[in-house]
Amino acid sequence: xxxxxxxxxxxxxxxxxxxxxxxxxxxxxxxxxxxxxxxxxxxxxxxxxxxxxxxxxxxxxxxxxxxxxxxxxxxxxxxxxxxxxxxxxxxxxxxxxxxxxxxxxxxxxxxxxxxxxxxxxxxxxxxxxxxxxxxxxxxxxxxxxxxxxxxxxxxxxxxxxxxxxxxxxxxxxxxxxxxxxxxxxxxxxxxxxxxxxxxxxxxxxxxxxxxxxxxxxxxxxxxxxxxxxxxxxxxxxxxxxxxxxxxxxxxxxxxxxxxxxxxxxxxxxxxxxxxxxxxxxxxxxxxxxxxxxxxxxxxxxxxxxxxxxxxxxxxxxxxxxxxxxxxxxxxxxxxxxxxxxxxxxxxxxxxxxxxxxxxxxxxxxxxxxxxxxxxxxxxxxxxxxxxxxxxxxxxxxxxxxxxxxxxxxxxxxxxxxxxxxxxxxxxxxxxxxxxxxxxxxxxxxxxxxxxxxxxxxxxx
Amino acid sequence: xxxxxxxxxxxxxxxxxxxxxxxxxxxxxxxxxxxxxxxxxxxxxxxxxxxxxxxxxxxxxx
Lengths: 460, 62
Description:
The complex is a heterodimer. The two termini of chain A are about 15 Å apart. In chain A, strand 10 and strand 11 form a beta hairpin. In chain A, about 35% of the residues lie in helices and about 15% in strands. Chain A has 14 helices and 13 strands. By secondary structure, chain B is an all-alpha fold. Chain B has a domain of about 40 residues. Chain B has 2 helices and no strands.
């Protein structure tokens, strides 16, 4: 049990301490803001700190005005979430000139309704087209385990802020891997829920076909706690499911009993560095998983996800590429431009293939509840690194950190990243992939691995 | 899929004109490079064969 005012405290521990009266929400926020001020010159995870708002909210909680399962828990959000009174940067310079958000994004409102306290907006790759956590306008968010290395992206600030102990909980977005990549590189638990499970209302889009929002935290329990608070239909997001909320937290104690766990072979067993596959093997051993399954045509799925992303993303930004090209990160700009020029026939083919791939992968899940795969092909690359060697082949870092995440978000499957800390080395994550709407199974496996000491958050 | 390599530079120049996308001279080489990378990454999709009956998954509800 950590001191609720320390940087290693989990959201669950903080909420418990505030609810029991052991500590005041105001004291939690004061400690959090001090930690942010101390860490930021090195980590650069935050672009906006809303200290005054957080202190006001904490005082209201201490006065007995707000109750809920996340009472007094500080959290921060990737700066593509609307924060009332601030422009929604989405990692860009251009959006600073846009309108200030009239109200908070839907998930910010849900977490605050559960008693949590927003402390700020977090750095990210420009317009979320990124796996590195670097940003030409605001500087890179740095990996707290080695500040010369990438945090991963595009939710880089979300990973860095939690790994540095600035906040116990952060929200990110994941279109092709942007929650899972920083969770892996920073060594944290991350949840990309089923497509449409959590409302995206009040967040800046990237690729509507694949955009998901979700939490990054220091424990599986904190993922479940926050996920449960954020579930529920929202008419403001057209793809948000109207399925009833399905609480996952009460089910964590069930462990892995009855779960059929398999290892993804073929595509997911090659093209990465040895540590990625060693991590999967360690997790499989701890879970007693020996069976290998194949997600058919995963390479084509990754290609299709790439094509849809390039074309939808480029199309979204065409007006800005025409009028303010000089204000983009050059690297982002030129990838968006190339995407705009790809054949429309590719897009339609990718969407048609998506349906076939979904059907064949769901068949695999008739015989397995959880499938294990690497989250990233390697540990955190150096900041500024452009190329990397994977499986003996030189490949661009930006396009390839999401090799193993893209075929999964392509069809909206829920995934929890379980982090392995690798003493003497850098952390790396393993994807625990479930069938649609079965987040509880992946969270149960993550909680089991944590209990066994296989998965854990980094030392604070 | 055609085996013949397209003239990507021309494709980029003419495609940009067609959609009214100005590409500054200093950006052109990198747009071409990214297009070439896209050709390589998209290849596994382009090699897939699909039945005529396979329609996209997205549903538009009026």
